[in-house]
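Here is a typical protein record:
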Amino acid sequence: MEPTKRKRVLLTAEQKFQIVSRIEAGETLTKLSKEFGVGVSTIGDMRRGSEKIKKFYAASNGKSAKLRKTMKCANDELDSVF
């Protein structure tokens, strides 16, 4: 029998913000990883990048955070092209 590969889970920015908030409230990483279906190391990475997640969520005002799954921002280098 071949081992089955785990399906890749993409969380929205809002879910990431919820995870960071719950970590700060004292919930365990293993509980959160089981609830959201991601690995414990992924939750730990979110804890380490919590400031970046908070800034992105605040900048989006929660509107696009429900849809966005990446936190990449556009570079403002179009002015130099023209």
